[in-house]
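Hi,

Apologies if this is the wrong queue. I'm a grad student, and the batch job for Glycosyltransferase from Urochloa decumbens produced an output file that my downstream script rejects. I'm not sure whether the problem is my script or the file. Here is the sequence I used:
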Amino acid sequence: MEDTTTAAPHVLVLPFPAQGHVTPLMELSHRLVDHGFQVTFVTTEPIHGLLLATGGAALPDGIRLVSVPDGLADGDDRRDISRFVDALFGCVPGYVEQLIRETKVRWLVGDVNMGMCFDAARKLGVRVAAVFPASAACLGTLFKVPQLIEDGFFDDKGFPKRHGSFEIAPGMPPFCPSQMPWSIDGPAEGQEVGYRMVSRNTQAARDHAEIIVCNSFCDAEAAAFQLFPSILPVGPLFADAELRKPVGQLLPEDTGCLRWLDAQPHRSVVYLAFGSFTIFDPCQFQELALGLELTARPFLWVVRPDFTTGDLSEAWFDEFKDRVAGKGMVVSWCPQQQVLAHSAVACFVSHCGWNSTMEGVRNGVPFLCWPYFVDQFANRDYICDIWRTGLAVSPGEDGVVTKEELSGKVEKVIGDEGIAERARVLRDAARKCLGEGGSSRENFDRLVDLLRE
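Support response: The file is valid. Your script probably expects a header line. Output copied below for reference.
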């Protein structure tokens, strides 16, 4: 029989099945293993397969990957968000309950966006620690939704009733009612499904979690943490100081770009990456490419295989790559944390996903913001208006960001010493929070102590 007095404490870690959620919870898992924990990391079967393909074999002994069905069949469109979350809601909790019974863990460390599983855990006597992978401002705003409905910003199904934006408190970014986490393009029923899931998950975190942590730090969101003291920052999260591990990546990383960066001058490279969801139409894609060419600067551009829709000519893109050969590099995915830590990078053209935002902040990199959906617009406002560590692109009347707009804003960002200095100050604040005696370090230690109970 196992000696429970000396066995490593064992926790079940459960991210929402998407890149921006898997990565921070895997980073947190690595840190827990460093503190003597055993982690069973639970993902849906498609995500599990991608993790295995991109480095699952290299995980430390303390992390075990386990998969559960997501409720959809092979070939179903998992980019149909409303259908996807509806299937998750109906399928995953039962499998997680079964896993809890089999593994006999005492704690579920769950993404707030998987709060649908928290009730089952509590009924089995398993304690819950909730992790929010986005900003404290975003989670705090979700906590305020019942009040926002009462104030007339939304109806009781999550549909906007007002135009414009609202501000929860000074020092927090404004939110637009049409850009909430449940705001999904498509039929109205999809919006309702998304709203229902977000509301239930957020309420589950408040009802069942003994601690709620997020991937942020005090100086980044002072107003949010003052208004919502129950949300504890433990970030910016990363797996190890040397950034050696491809942690939680769902696409294979092209590490050749690091050697290419080594050959570039200090603070010269424009790095562009738009996350795992952003899709541009062919017109916008071409303007972006031509804008990069117009800068005449070295650039590293991440172009996923599904980055554009429609009839973009492969021949046109091949000709573009031939023209910029030697000056620019195009990859399908890259080790972003290592890229952003590289001294050759001058600015980060980003969709402003929260993980990318924190990675850029931790490395003191100025931003050119190009948000795509939901909380990315609020993150842009943090960067441009509150931290003042970057600028934003401005689309034309037709919604297209022109090549001249892109190239002009790149020059402004790189040439602005005030932006560069503020980025360095915020970087130093992040590192101080993570250091000995820092607030993020102390909050993480508090989480560790609680999980050992």
